[in-house]
Specification:
Arc Repressor Mutant, subunit A, 3 domains, four-stranded mixed beta sheet, 23% strand
């Protein structure tokens, strides 16, 4: 670690970035450093050389892909914190700089989070990047510990915790897996089929227009309009179908057509509830699970 401390602040930042990129994306090229920091090829080469001196067993060179990959015995020399890593995956590496770089991995949604295991997170993000399947040990609320084969395609924050959007090979469909409930993750050989990739996830691709209004049971709707900066008494937002239910639950939006939930705990009402037709995550929205249960019993 002494050599890290001897490096300049800007070089330490570049060294942290290249390790982050290799560890969580599974690949690193000199051009990645050049693009992120705007440095010359010679400076990027010096960074790579210095890192390989500090951690000679961390990176393997892949001549076919012309990139460095984390070795099987990779051990980070930087202390990565879950909040910063997930913020990087969501917003990009840097302090809010708009550099026009592509996101590290498909990742959507603002909110707070629970800290996941960094090694498992790295395995998942590498699989997303490489489009490879994983065997995971998953702790389900209904079935307990199970082994599943999944193809992770994106990360999402539901406002309370992060989950992995993935194709579940056993069930033959896309679903959500809570990140902290994945106890083990191992990459499998072979690439995923086209039907298992993000481009085939219709619920992720579909964008739903939601119209949020003050709950009709509130005596002073102007106060709610002011809270959310509503225009003409409505707040219009867009959400992925895969996340719409999480959005409505996070903000306690009464999602029943007849606004029957208690306005004291549901200040907002989804006035265009028909927008949730065909939305798989709709059962998570306040009032929708009960309505689905009644319909099923009718």
């Amino acid at each position: 670690m002494g050599k890290v401390l001897d490096a300049s602040q800007t070089q330490r930042e570049r060294l942290a970035f290249l390790e982050l990129r290799a560890y969580f994306m599974g690949e690193l090229r000199r051009g990645d450093i050049e693009a992120r920091f705007g440095v010359k090829p010679a400076a990027a080469s010096r960074d790579l050389s210095l890192y390989r001196k500090m951690a000679p067993r961390n990176l393997d060179y892949d001549p076919a892909a012309r990139c460095y990959r984390p070795s099987r015995i990779f051990a980070p020399i930087n202390a990565f914190h879950a909040e910063r890593v997930l913020a990087w995956l969501l917003q990009g590496y840097g302090d809010g700089l708009e550099l026009g770089l592509k996101p590290a991995a498909p990742c959507d949604g603002p909110g707070k989070l629970i800290n996941p295991d960094m090694a498992i997170l790295a395995t998942i993000t590498r699989a997303v990047r490489a489009k490879r399947p994983l065997e995971v040990s998953y702790l389900s609320l209904t079935s307990g510990a199970t082994r599943r084969e999944i193809v992770p395609v994106a990360l999402a924050d539901n406002g309370l915790r992060w989950h992995v959007r993935a194709y579940d090979r056993e069930r033959g469909r896309f679903g959500d897996f809570v990140l902290t409930r994945i106890a083990k993750a191992k990459e499998l050989t072979g690439e995923a089929a086209d039907r298992e990739l993000l481009s085939s996830d219709e619920q992720w691709a579909r964008i739903v227009d939601l119209e949020l209004a003050p709950h009709p049971g509130i005596a002073q709707p102007q106060a709610i309009e002011a809270d959310y900066g509503m225009q003409e008494g409505v707040l219009r937002i867009k959400a992925r179908a895969a996340l719409a239910g999480y959005v409505l639950r996070r903000w306690s939006v009464d999602s029943t057509p007849n606004h029957r939930l208690d306005p004291a705990s549901h200040h907002l009402w989804l006035r265009n509830s028909q927008a949730l037709r065909g939305v798989d995550s709709a059962t998570l929205a306040p009032g929708r699970a009960e309505a689905a249960s009644v319909a099923a019993q009718a």
